Structures are given as C-alpha cells and as structure tokens.
Amino acid sequence: MKSRHVVRERSVHRGVAGLILTLLLAPLLALISSGPAHAVDTLCLPGPDKACIAGTIRTEDGPLADVKLTVTDEAGTVTEVTTGETGKWNVQVDKEGPYVVKIDEASLPKDLDVVKDNVTVKAKFGATMPALLTVRTASYSDSTSKFDQLLQSTVNGLRLGLLLALASVGLSLIYGTTGLSNFAHAEQVTLGGMLGYLLINVHGLNIWLGGLLVVILCAFSGYFQDRVLWQPLRRRGLGLTQMIIVTIGLSLALQYVYQYLVGAGTVRVVQDNPSVREFGSVTITNQSLVAMAISIVVLLAVGYALLRTRVGRATRAVSDNPALASASGIDTDKVIRLVWTVAMGLAGLSGLLYALVVNGVKWDSGLQILLLLFAAVTLGGLGTAFGALIGALIIGLVVEVSPVVGMPGDFKYATALLILILLLLVRPQGLLGKPQRVG
Amino acid sequence: MDTLQGILNGMMREAISPQTAAVAIAVIGLNIHLGFTGLLNFGQAGFMLLGAYGMAISVWHGLPFALGILLGLAAALIFALVLGVPTLKLRGDYLAIVTISAAEILRYIGRSSLLSDFTGAAQGIPGSQYREPFTNLSIFGSGSFTLIPFNYADVADGAAWVRIIGWLLLVALIVALVLVLRGRAGLAGGAKIGAATVISVVGVFLLFFLFPVPGQSTGVNGWWVRVVAWTLVAISTFVVFLLVRSPWGRLLRGVREDEDAIRSLGKNVFSIKMQALVIGGLFGAIGGMIYVLPASTQPDSMGRTLTFFCYTALLIGGAATIFGPVLGAVIFYTARIGIKYTLSAYVPSDWMNNQQTEQFSYIVVGVALMLIVIFRPQGILGNKRELRFDV
Amino acid sequence: SDSEGDAKPEASDTPTASDSAPAADAFTDDKCAANQTSADSFRVGGILPLTGSLAFLGPPEIAGVGLAVSDINAAGGVNGSKACHDVQDSGDSSDMSVSTASAGTLVASKPSVVIGAASSSVSLNVVDTFADNKITEVSPANTAVDLSGYSPWYFRTAPPDGVQGNALGTLISTDGYTKVGFLVFADTYGTGLRDVVEKTVKAAGGSCTYGCKGDGDEFPPGQTTFSSEVSGVIASKPDAIVILAFDETKSIVPELKSQGWDMSKTYFTDGNTSDFSKDFAKGTLKGAQGTIPGADPDATFKERLSGWAEVGEGAALKDYSYGAESYDATILAALAAVKGGATDSQTVRDNYAAVSGATDGKECKTYADCVALLKDGSEIHYTGPSGIGPIDDENDPSSAFVGIYTFNADNKNELTSTVEGSK
Amino acid sequence: MTSLQKDEPVTDTRKPVVEAKDVVAGYIPGVNILNGCSLVAYPGEMIGIIGPNGAGKSTLLKAMFGLVKVHSGTVMLGERDITNLRTNQLVEMGVGFVPQTNNVFPSLSIEENLRMGLYLRPKKARERLAAMWDLFPVLHDRRNQSAGALSGGERQSLAMARALMMEPSVLLLDEPSAGLSPVRQDETFLRTRRINKTGVCVVMVEQNARRCLQICDRGYVLDQGRDAYSGTGRELANDPKVIELYLGTLAKDVDEERDSH
Amino acid sequence: MSEHTIAPTGLADPAARQAMTAGFDPDPGAAKPDPILVVDNIVRQFGGMTAVDVGHLEVQRGLITALIGPNGAGKTTFFNLITGFDRPTSAKTGAHWSFDGRKLDKTSASSVAQAGMVRTFQLTKALSRMTVIENMMLGAQNQAGENLFKSMFHPVWRQQEREIEAKADELLQRFKLYEKKHDYAGSLSGGQRKLLEMARALMSDPKMIMLDEPMAGVNPALTQSLLGHIQSLRDEGMTVLFVEHDMHVVRHISDWVAVMAEGRLVAEGSADTVMSNPAVIDAYLGAHHDTDLGDDALLTDEALEEIAEEVAAEDAERQADEEAEGLR
Ligand SMILES: Nc1ncnc2c1ncn2[C@@H]1O[C@H](COP(=O)(O)OP(=O)(O)OP(=O)(O)O)[C@@H](O)[C@H]1O
Ligand SMILES: Nc1ncnc2c1ncn2[C@@H]1O[C@H](COP(=O)(O)OP(=O)(O)OP(=O)(O)O)[C@@H](O)[C@H]1O
Ligand SMILES: [Mg+2]
Ligand SMILES: [Mg+2]
Questions:
Q1: Which Gene3D superfamilies match (chain E) (predicted)?
Q2: Which atom of ligand 2 is nearest to the CA of D100?
Q3: In chain A, fewer beta carbons within 10 Å around the N or the C end?
C-alpha cells in the first residue's frame, strides 16, 4: 500500500498538498536514499526557486563517511557539508549558476588518493545537480592489462568455438551427406535450449538427466524429420535449391512454434548464477568448463566415428555418389537418417550447452548464430566435419578476440565474416577442403 | 461477408503494394543470378540495401535525385565487382556464403553507430528525408487522387461477391497466363509473348480496379509510387525477356550447367558471370530504392530475411522463367497476408489471442511455404522436366 | 543505492479495494467489426509488435489499448458511439513489409487513432503513411529524440530519451560513480538513452569507460553471447555499469555476475527494469537500480491491465512495460474526440494536446471523470497512470515522472523514489 | 549364319540365374526407354549386350539392378522376383554392378573405395583387399590417394576392383573396358572370363563389341529398347545384319590392311 | 566412308601425307616442318608424383596425330595443361607452349579455345538442363548475340542464329543425335554424351581439335562413320590431336602417333612403326592385342600371368619414376 504513497516531487502547480505529503514521507525516502539521521540527512528537495547539488564520496571499495566538502558559489560564498554514513552529501542552494565543489583532503583517511578534488556544476532551479569527485585507494589501478584481457577473451573464444563446433559439425555432416544447406539447423539449436528450459526449469528435472533427455529428444526429432520429411522429398527427387527453401519454411514455422509455445522473451534453463573459477587472471564458470569438456569429448567421438568406422565411411560415400553407394549395398536412407539423427542430437546438445553458457535461450537464439555456423562450415571446407570444427574454433576466437584488439564491438560478427571471405580468397576450397580435378 | 471483403481487400492491397513490386524487381535480378546463371547469391538484400542507401544518403545530403539513383546503382555495381572478382572463381556453395556474409557486413556497417551522421545508424534514414524529389515528380498532382473514378462506388463498396468474382477472374487470368507461358495453349513465339502481355495488362488493370482505396494520395505510399513501381516491374521483365532469349541468355544457362564445358568452348566464363552478377545486382538496387520510397531506409529491413523471401518468391514463381519472379512475389506476399488475415478473422479468440493468432499464422506461412515447394518444386511457371537433372 | 534496501516497504501485490477497480468480469474485449470506421464509432487501430523480436512487448501494450477501450465503453463510449480496437502486427525491423501492410490495412479501415508503434524503426517506417492519410498516430513507446515534432500527426505518450536519461545520469552521479561503462543495445532506444546519460554524467564530472558514443561498442539486437562485451566493460574498470537493453538483460546479468561484477553498481532503464524473480537466483540483482519514466502505475492499474489481458488475450501479463502509456494514449485520443465532438482522426489530432493539459485545464484521472468535465465545457488535464505531463508543441509529453527502483533480494524492482524530469 | 530372331522360342531346360522378362522401363513417366526387353542368363554363363548408343543397354542393367523403375515385366534372380527391389537389397543377395559413369567415390581414398565394395561383409575386408592389391598393384601404391585424382582408366580399374571385392554371384558390368589401355582391356576381359569360370554369372554391356562377342557365351543386340538379336557370340559377330547395323567393318578393314602390309 | 568433298589442301591426298610423315624424324620430340603446336618443358606434379614431364613436342599442322599411352600416362593432364585448365608446375621454370605462333603460357582456357584450339573431355561435360541443340549452339564462336548489349536486339543476331542452327542440325545428323535435338542433354546415354561433346566442339570450327578418347563408348559402326568425318575435316585443313585406346581407330586414321608413358614422350612415328615397337607392345598393347580372346586356352594361369606381367610393366616404369621422385 505504501508504494502508492510514494513521494512525488511534482513541480509548480502540484500544490501544497503534495509538498506536505512529501515532507511526511521524507523519512521513508531518507531511509532508502541516505543513511540514518545525520547532519545532511534531510533530503534536499529542489523547488521552483531552490536547486540541489548532491553527490556521494566513495572509493572503488565503498562510500566514505565524514568527508568534508566545500561548495562555493560565484560570489565566493562557501557552504560546508559533510558526507553521511553512506557517503552521501547534498546542499540546497537558492541561486542558479556555477558552483565549485571541493573536497577537503584533510578530512580523508590517510592512504587515499584524491584523483579529482573539485568540480564545477551548474545549479538549476527545480533540479538536483550531481557533482562527482574522485577518490581512490592507493592500490587502485586504472586499467586491466591487455594481455589478461586477451587471455580471457581467448578462453571465451574457445568456449564459443567449441559450442559452435558441436552445431556446425552436424550442419556439415548433413551438407556432406545430402548436399543440403539446412537453414533450419539454427532452430534445432534453439530446440535444445527450449527443451532444456521446459524439462529442467519448468519440470524441475535434474540437469544431467534433463540434458540427456534433451539430446535424446533432439536426436529423435532428427530421426523423425528425416522419416516424415526429408526422405520422402529425396525419393521425389526434389532439387537442392528447393530443399533449401523447404528448410527456410521449416525454420520460419519452428521459430513461431517456439514463440507460440514459450513466448518471445528469453528464458533460462537454470536460474542459478554460474559459479566461477579463476585460473590466474582468467575467470571461467564451472558451467563453461563442463560444457567445453563435453563438447571436446563429443567432438572427438564423432570424429573417431567418422574416420574410423564403417558407418562413418558410408556417410562420406553417400555424399560422394549416392547411387553408387547403394550399389555397394549401403542402405543410403538408413545412413542419411543416422546422419540426421546424430546431427540433430549434436545441435540439441549444442543448443542446451549454449543456453547454459550464455545464460538463456530465446526463440531466435539459434537464428542469431546461424550465419556463424555456416561460416564455420565453409571456413573449414564444405562437408568436411573436421574442417567445421576448426572453422568453428576460428570463428569463435575471432568473435571474442577482435573487440579486444581494437575492432569496434559491433563489428565482431562482421569481422568473423570478413575473415571468412578473405580466407576463401586465398584458399577457395576452405581450410581442409580439397581442390577438384578437371577433365 | 464484410470480414471476407476485408481480407480480400488486404490481399489486394498487398498484391499491388509498391513493396511487392520492389521485391519483384529484386527477384527478377535474383532470377538472373540463380535461375539463369546458377549463381547462389544469398546477398540480394545487400544489393537492395546499397541501392536504397545510395539513393537515400545522396538525397539526404543534398544531392539531386537523379544523381542519387545513379549513385545507388553505382554502389551496387561496385559491390558486384568487389564481390565478384574474388568469388566468382569459387564453387557455387562458397559464393553463397560469401554473398550472405558480405550482405550481412553491409548491414552491420549500415547499423554501426560510428557512421551515424552518414547513415543514420540503426534507425536509418526517415523517408521524409529523401522522398520529396520523387513525390514532386508525380503526374497525379498532390493531395488525394482517385485513379479509377468508379471503383469505389461500384466495386470496393459493393457487395463482397463482386469482389470475389473479381478475384476469381484474376485467378483465372493467372491460370491462363501460366498455361500460355508453359506452352499449353498451343501458342508459340511471338503469339505466346503477345498473349502473355495482354493477359498481364488485363490482370494489372483488374488489380487496380479492385483496389479498395480510392483516395490514395500521391505523396508517400499512393498511386504515384505504385504506378512507377509496377512500370519498372514491367520494364525489368521485358529487359530480362530480351536478354535471356538471346544467345547471351544461352551462355548464362551454359555457365549454370558446367563452367568448364563453357570454357572449353572459348567463352569467358568469368566475364559472363560478372555480367550476370552486375545486371542482377542492379535490378536488386532498383528494387531496394522502390522498397524504401514509401517507407524508410533501415539497415535491418534489408537483411537475411528479405533475401530468403526473395528466394521463396523466385521458387514459387519458377526459377529461370520470365514471369516467375513477378508472379512469385505477388503470390508470396498476397498469400502471406491472406493467411494472416484469414486466421485472425476466423480463429475464435478463445482458442488463441491476437498475438498467438499472428504467431500461428507464421507457422502456417512456414508450412505452406514448405508444401508449395514440395508439391510444386519447379514453381508455378517452371518446367518440371528440367528438375530431373538437378545436380 | 547502498542503503538497507530490505527495510524498504514491500510493494503491495494485493489490489486495494479501490473505488475505481471493477471486478474482472466487467472487462470487455471490443474488437472492431470490419465495417466500423471512424465515421460511426471510435475506432482505435493498433500497430504493435505481435511477432518478431519485440513481440514480448506486445501483450502489455495490447492490454493497455484494450483496457482503455473497455473503460471507454463502460463509461458510455465516445459521444455516444462505441469504441473498438483493431490491433495489427507491426512485426520488427527485419521485415518491413509486415508493418507496411498493416499500415495499409489500418489506413483503409479509417480509424480514429492508431496506437503504435513500439519500436522507433517501425514508427519511422509507417509514420509518413499515416500522416499522408491524415491519421493520428500515437506511440506509447517511442523515445527517440529525432521523432520529436516529426509530423503534426504523430504524438507519443512515452517521454523522449532526455527525460529518463537525465534522471538516470543524475542518479548515477549522485551515487558517486565517476567512471561509467555502458552495455548498449544498438538501436535508437539504446543509443539515444546512452547519449543523454553519458552527457549528464560527464557534466557532473564523470567519464565514460566503455560503450561510449562513437566507440561502436553497441551490440546488435538479438545478440545472444555477451562475454566479449562484458569482458570489455569490466576490463575498462568502471565504477558503475549501465545496461541499456531489453530482453538481452537476462543473458547479460549472469555473465556480469560470473565475471565478478558487483551487481549493486549496475543501473537499468525502463527496457529492463522489471521483475526478474523468475529468471535469476535469489539475491543476484540485490541493490541494482533502474529507472522507469512514468510514475509507477499503481498496483490496481496493473491488476486491471492484467485482468483485461486475461479476458482479451487469454493470459495474465508477465510484464507491464508501456501498458500505462498505451492506455493513456488511447484515453487521450478518446477524450480528444469527445472534446471535438467527432470521432474522426482530424478531430482527435486537433484536440489531443488540449485534453492532455496543454491548455491548463482541470485535472481529472479517469475517462469518466474527464468526460464529465468536458461535458461541463471546461478544459481538462487528463492525468492517467503513465504520469506524463501535457503534450507540448512537438507532440511530446513535456515532462514526466521518472520512477527510481531498487531491486530487492528476490530480484523484484521496487520503487524507491520518483523524480520529475523534463525534456 | 543363323541369327536368332527375338521371338524364336529358345528352349532350355536349365534354370536361369537372372532373367528379365518383357521389361518396360524408363526415366520419365510416360517415356519408356525399354519396350519389352528380355534377357536370360543361365548358371555359369557370360552374357554380352551390345547395341548402338542410346539403345537402352545401360538402362536395362539399371532396371535389373533396381536403379530405374520397371513399369511392367519382371526381373527374376533365380526363383525370386526382384523387380523394383531396392538396390542395397540386391547387393545383399549377391549382385554386383559397375556403372558406366560415376563409378567411384571421388573424395574417398582408393582403399576406402574398395572397402565400400565390401560394405556388407566388413570382416572379410583384409583378405579381399589383399587379393585386390595383388590384382591391381597400381591401386595398392596409391591406396591413400583420393579416387577423384585418378585418370579415366585408373578409375575404371578401381570401379572393377570395387565390384570384385564382394565376390558377387551375379556381376553386371557396364562397359568395363572403356578407357582402358589395350593390354588392360585384354586383362579385364580375361579376368572377367576367369571369374565367370568360377561360376559367377556375368552380364556385360560393351562397345568393344568384337572382343566382347569373342569372349561371351551368348550375346544380345539391343536396339531401341528391344533385344533385336541374340545368339552365341560368334554367331552375332558374323551376322551381316549385326555387322551392318552395329559392328561396322572398321576393325576388319584395318586388320586386313595391316596384314596386307 | 563418308565421301565428303575434299578440300584443296595438299594434305588431302594420302600419298602426300605419307610422303610427308615419312620425312619426319621418328625421335620423340622431333621437329616438324610446319608445327601448329609446339610444347617445351611442361612439367606437372601432384604431390611428389610427376604426372606430365614433356620436354619438347611438336604437332604437325593439317595431320591427325594420335596420342597413346598407358592409363595414367598423363595424356589427359597434358591436355588440361596446354588448354589452360591446369597450370604446369614448371610455369616459373621455363614452360612454354605456343599454338599457331601464339604463346599460350599464361592464357586462360577460354582464350585458348578462342585461339582455335578446342578440346573435349574424357569424362563428358554435357550441359544437362539445356537441350541438345542449345548445347550445340553454344559451341559456335563469335556470336554477336553473346554480347550483353547486342543481345537485346533480336535483328542483330537473328540471321547468324539461323546459320548456326543449320550447321548444328547438320552435325547432329551426322552424329546420330538429330532425333534428340530438343531433348535435355542430361537425358542422353553415356555414348550419346560423348558424341554430343565432340559435335559441340566441332561447332566452333577450330583450327585444331583435341579429342580425349572420343570413341570410348561409341558404338563401332558409328565410330567408323565419325572417323570418316574427322578425316574429311582434316582434309579441309583442321589439325586433330586425339587420345585413344582403340588401336583400330588409331591405325585407321592417324597420320602420326606419339606415345606417352609415365608422363614423358617416349616414342613417335607412324602407326605401324610405333605399334611394332617392342617397348610399346610390352608396356601398352600387350602380346595378345590382336589375338582372339574367345579361346579358353588363354585362361590358363600362364597366359594370365603373362598378361599380368605386361600390365605390371605398364606400371613398373611409372613406379620407378615415382620412387625416383620420392628419393629426390
Ligand atoms: N588432381 C590430381 N591430383 C593427383 N593426381 C592426379 C591429378 N590429376 C591426375 N593425377 C594423376 O596423374 C596421372 C596422369 O593422369 P591422366 O589423367 O593425365 O592420365 P591419362 O593418361 O589421361 O590416363 P587414362 O588413359 O587412364 O585416361 C594419373 O596417375 C593420375 O592419377
Ligand atoms: N536420366 C535419363 N533421363 C531421361 N532419359 C534418359 C536418361 N538416361 C538415358 N536416357 C535415355 O534413354 C535412352 C537409353 O539410354 P541408355 O543409357 O540406356 O543407352 P545405352 O544403350 O547405354 O547407350 P550408350 O552405349 O551410349 O551408353 C537414351 O535415348 C537416353 O536418351
Ligand atoms: Mg550406356
Ligand atoms: Mg585420360
């Protein structure tokens, strides 16, 4: 109820009633915005012919009480004021114009540096003018070492890269086996996060169990998708460009399914703040560490499966020449379905980890990184799973590191894309792609 | 009936909206890239953006309108060259990534606050800053103007069945157009084109006739920009028709099929692709200019989404066909509005609220898009036989 | 601020048995029929984000409009004719064709007023179309400075950036933070506010360490990873950080926390000063402060808004941003129509400023009260839940209250004081 | 010089291994490439199919192998009706196929290509690989190179080797000798014949017609989607109609010319 | 066979040709009186393996020269190099080749073709989604309508288009593809594609045509009639360089034969001389190349071993070469 009776510092025609109310409630306000009773604790209220000058004296460690300040007007009249327990001070003046606020260094504790001991502010009737004075402890350093920053952002970059890699390996696998650029892949990534939200946050499942379930469900969604959509389309001999449009349509539909079901805002998979670990100057959350570890393990497993197993070879065979693959006894449909299943499982995992690491998921979370995924896949060489891994790491690093080395922050994605373009100029087949033979 | 009429009116407005025309022109350009030359240009929105910004920035900063248009075209031309020189030697898929990336980079530059004095940053340039020279050219004079005097009284305000018949007629015309163009009507060569043109003209006239807002003013989003936009669509279509039925067009399709083969026949593949990229890009730029004339120039409005829509429109209409892009654009936008309005009018509000209905309608749009492509992969005008050899 | 916020009064969630709060079932959802126009009814068009990246702002705005229409009809309509609403989708700036189409539809439906759009980009896209067709457009949420006085047909009930920016800048400075870092959303909303806050802080003798004007460190809307921005801003060693963003805040805060930032030195704005109790672990935001222009709409109003949403939109509101502004925008329009004696858009425009108090009329709080005053022939000054001052000659609210909120241990924002700011 | 006309009944008491009966098949609905084409192969036989370009030879093989849809007629493998069965099922039944074009996996290495030939029975890979390395030493030397880099002839050898990996019981070959150097052509023919002698039924399409007819037990001449002539290899090779329509006289002329030197 | 009217080149007369080739020096890389193509020091390596290493080669104008050699000898790669589809590894260390007096060291593939040297591909490149006739018409050179600006004006190129089509029709008939004129090239059979490839190359009226195994997969009767056509083209003055494994074809039409093995030019001479060269027989033709394979006697282990040895010989030198390469 009290909230409805809050002080409203209304101006001119607000009338006396308001003022009285204000005064009645002043103690309440004081409770909030300044400390308990003290010399300056009466709140300064600017009025039609009154101006306030106010501020807080603090170091980076906290507010300083009992610091003396002088406020000098144009005419040279000096008013003294002392800071309260919360470091706050204010003065009411009845002339407009410049005032010099100066700190009395003698009233400060010994080991402090006064960086800025006076400031001039222009008082205006009806307004509170803040005045800022800077006091620092002796140990204060003004900046972070560039090297530390670089280190931190490199770690962040690796983290982003690994998560991108999980998703882009799947994208690359699908491209590799079927030639399809799956624009709906982003929505699969989002799906991972969304399912995570529903299972872990809403239904309160244990995070590991929930995570496992998410991956299984996503993998199943891949299986299902191929069963009801992609396989029939392949059977009908739909062209690749057409298929791309189908993926675009699917992506649109899925985005709005998420909006419809979960809403347009960001939701979080777990509510807790991640706990932090420090390695030298680098801080990283436990969640990120676990996510990175999981990504590495999964990526290694996928890589091994691709290179060393029969099925892995089969996926590449199918991508090369599907007709011949089936003439070799490979059930191409089965292989492709497997690829969809695995790819979607990976995308789901990536989405879940991504949602955990970046602290939330939204209907367009995946869409935002879609281009990065494609860039990673291309950078590494289209259709080569390992290329996708390397490409993703590079993209992740560029995105995180480029702002540190001086690129404006809003160009960080643009920089990643630019690097991609430049690299393709030098190595058109991508990092791991092979040039093709003519004739 | 009123609701139905409202929906039909909405669709009609969308069908002849200048932005539909703008997209149609951009798609005509994209058709040269994708349909005829096989260049996977996923950055058509980038070309549009350059055209739009080229014009808007110039006029905003006080240059003459004509110069603004030229600068917009020049920007697209340079973009095509800069993009083409390094990437046209790459394989098609890589071109897709490079173009989409380049277009995104353009968008990032457009919305960067570093250039805000020049580009207006994220918010872009308000239409009022650059539209005036264009509206001043209007042949309709200023203020309200009723293009077809009897339309409001006779049709738009009349019973809904008049409108429905109008629509049916229009659909019939489109079907006729499709039949003629796909050679089912037994016409060939000049007769075919002639018939197609006549049908199109009648169709456009019908559209205007059925168009429900009579008192469109001429300034911002009225008759003038519509007439200019659709005239440009017609001109673009005709130019493309001239281009692709010629040996030059044959070259394009050759490049689409196998570059090495074309090279071995002594044709300069790079130059052909570059010509295609530039021409298509210029159409994109013109589309971009039209796109922003009734609205405002904003970086985000010409991003990936728009490129995807262009692709969709192209494939719905039929890639590598002359009228496909225009038909596709009109159908895509009209159908989208139709779906939205129908759902919001007929889905009971205790099933879904306003917002959910809108969201649901996008789901339907997405699914409809998939279905169209699945069941008519060659597009409305496309040739099914060609698809068989899709590699 | 660093006071013992816990001792602060609880915001009361239970509605008071207020005189004006009708029971929930009294709300009506008066959708326009297709043939209703401003000729025979008070038709309120809406161009609000139902889909796209700002869709989460949609529900409170729709509820604001819907509730206003419901209240207007409860009070007997406008000059005897019924009010109705027709909300169209504005989409977002990535697909302008949505807003263009909606604008076309709205123009064709001949509304008395159009409420919208939420984002400045969309407004810029359609504002000329409305002006050209002589339709009054009132945005409940646009804050861009460039829109001040954009066209005689464009009004807004959200105060321009200057009002809130000043208040926030003053708040930060009086809290004694010298070096301020900004995490800014690259949109007119973010940059506009940032510019004002930065200016205010600098005027008080402070400085900007990150995300400053001209640095190009803004992040694009919809971005999901903020580690580099957060690292960047923390590395710049600010004393306080201002987050100027919408929904992204949910991802930014944990990132800040995990990189060791003390959240009590963080400031929010109206885009993200809201109830985060469902999003963060307890205590995460404790002590962080935020500003929202407009006096804190009292709990009754929020209840009613949400109550209407349950009737009209089938779900209670989770968020109330710009709900009050939408409500006031609609009520003001209706009052203007009453004052001018006609429901056409021209009349609404002509009287819009007058009913908002520009002519120094009598204050009145509800539609019914104001209508009664108008009927008596007096000039009025409508003071609705949004707490804006009279509309000035640039069609902006000339002044507005800015509420200062502190987050408690539950991550809920609680009003701590209110200051009045002006352009 | 008896040329057996198509419709002349051939009575044979043996049970066919593969048989195509009046197969009608095509790529596009409504356009039939094969118009009632029949072919039969008995145990241990080697069948050659020759015919002008575009006659439908490859299509016949593909139809038998399930790569082209059979509209009417049947394809039998022993007792089993395999019409329109999926290709990989046929492979499981022991049918091997070497296509005319695109017959390797260009981005897989040579060894991987060969392993693909044994996809269904990976256990035998080591043994079979060793056997192939013996037969095609060139391939062994380059086993880790990607097949896409191979020359036309090398590809052809690889394709052949891939099919031999699986030890099929029926082998369908589409122009296995095309692009091979003469000595390799001979080798291919003889090797195929030798495999055939081990009981594998071979059906091969060839443009190197004379050699094909020399070595095959029976031959079919396809024309316009029908089996126009059939008979033993030697009968066909000397049939004047076949010569006129199809074989031509080049080889004979050249040989005679050379002998007269 | 096809008795085309013989154009008045001196080389139309077989006797004149024989007289001419008899005068050629049979050493590999020997000079010719009027070479149209001169190649010097072309080396192409893939990794450690040398695919082509041709020191010097001249191709006589107006003759049909066959290029034969074992699989993987480097014939296709050689074609790729001189037609600009590949770049020699030795580009910086003095690789030169010139065509008709024009240096081609750095010329792009399309310019090479424009200069009059047109090639076909061993693995055919049909333009699938274009009709056969369109494929053909693309082959024609100097089309006004292929210019972007002129293309918009029908009258400018109408006449030329008709002429080109007429010519294409004629070729299609000869190549037995006329019935397929309006079919998509993607629907052609393997052999038909080969035919189309060749016919399309001929559309450009090249000075020299380079055919990569043109007759592989073409049925014998048609081969025979096409050879007649090629001969008549030669008689009209076209130079032909072709790769072929069918020795009947080589014997029948080639005036001169060059042999490549493991990337090098190892022998030159008339067909008869080259084919009686024991080295060529050993490594390329095989002892049985003109015996009847139908004889089951050949299926004995000995005979097969013998053949296997020959095949091994075909590979042996190359292997040695590779090893040498590896040692280096
Ligand atoms: N891009 C490449 N990468 C690696 N090796 C290659 C490449 N292209 C060709 N080679 C190798 O170079 C050698 C020569 O190949 P080329 O295709 O020129 O042979 P060819 O004489 O045409 O043989 P064929 O008669 O079988 O067609 C072959 O061993 C081949 O594997
Ligand atoms: N994919 C296809 N789509 C449509 N028609 C095709 C297709 N492939 C082949 N054809 C047509 O089928 C007919 C027979 O083709 P097929 O490949 O069976 O001939 P072939 O006898 O093997 O000839 P070749 O000796 O030239 O290989 C040809 O007329 C060809 O045009
Ligand atoms: Mg064949
Ligand atoms: Mg070769």
A1: P-loop containing nucleotide triphosphate hydrolases
A2: 27
A3: N
Q: Which domains does chain A have, with CATH numbers?
A: 51-137 (2.60.40.10), 147-426 (1.10.3470)
The pLDDT assigned to B183 comes to 67
Residues B329 and B27: beta-carbon distance below 8 Å? yes
Interface test with B, best of C57, C62, C120, C133 (most B CBs within 10 A): C133
Give the CA distances from residue E203 to residues A350, B2, B183, E138, in Å, rounded to whole numbers and listed in that order. 56, 65, 29, 8
Give yes or no for residue D208 CB within 6 A of ligand 2: no
| Domain regions of chain E by residue span | 10-125+208-327, 127-187
Helix, strand, coil percent content, chain E, rounded in steps of 5: 45, 20, 35
* Residues within 5 A (CB) of ion ligand 4: D 151-152; E 76, 122
Q: What is the pLDDT of residues E113-155, one digit of tens each?
A: 988 899 998 888 888 888 899 999 998 988 888 888 888 888 8
- Name the residue of D59, D97, D174 to mutate for ligand 2: max ligand atoms within 8 A of Cβ: D59
Inter-CA distances, A139 with A59, B218, C176, C207, C348, Å: 11, 68, 19, 20, 63
Burial A402-425 (b: 16+ CB within 10 A, else e): bbbeebbbbbbbbbbbbbbbebbe
For residue D185, give the H/E element and its range. helix D182-197
Q: What is the pLDDT of residue B150?
A: 37
Q: C66-103: per-residue pLDDT in tens?
A: 999 999 999 888 988 899 999 999 888 888 888 988 98
Ligand nearest to the CA of E244: 1
Q: Which of the given ranges, A62-66, B178-182, D4-8, has the highest pLDDT on average?
A: A62-66
Q: Which residues of A touch D112 (CB under 8 A)?
A: 313, 316-317
**Is the Cβ of E125 closer than 8 Å to some Cβ of chain B?**
yes
Which residues of chain C lie closer than 8 angstroms to A147, CB-CB? Answer: none
Q: Is the four-CA dihedral D196, D201, D203, D209 of positive or negative sign?
A: positive
Does this model's pTM top 0.80?
A: yes
pLDDT tier for residue C335 given thresholds of 50, 70 and 90? very high
Domain E10-125+208-327 in CATH: superfamily? P-loop containing nucleotide triphosphate hydrolases (3.40.50.300)
pLDDT in tens, B342-384: 888 888 877 777 788 888 888 988 898 888 888 888 888 877 6
Reported as a single tens digit per residue, the pLDDT across B47-105 is 999 999 999 999 999 999 999 999 999 999 999 998 888 778 777 777 888 888 899 99
Residue A281, pLDDT score = 79
| Secondary structure, 3-state, chain B | CHHHHHHHHHHHHHHCCHHHHHHHHHHHHHHHHHHHHCCCCCCHHHHHHHHHHHHHHHHHCCCCHHHHHHHHHHHHHHHHHHHHHHHCCCCHHHHHHHHHHHHHHHHHHHHCHHHHHHHCHHHCECHHHCCHHHHHCCCCCCCECCCCCCHHHHHHCCCHHHHHHHHHHHHHHHHHHHHHHCCCCCCCHHHHHHHHHHHHHHHHHHHHHHCCCCCCECCCCCHHHHHHHHHHHHHHHHHHHHHHCCHHHHHHHHHHHCHHHHHHCCCCHHHHHHHHHHHHHHHHHHHHHHHHCCCCECHHHHCHHHHHHHHHHHHHHCCCCCCHHHHHHHHHHHHHHHHHHHHHHHCCCCCCCHHHHHHHHHHHHHHHHHHHHHHCCCCCCCCHHHHCCCC
- DSSP run (H or E) holding E252: helix E247-253
**Centroid of ligand 3 to alpha carbon of E259 (angstroms):** 29
Q: What is the mean pLDDT of residues B291-308?
A: 89
Structural Rg of chain C based on CA atoms? 21
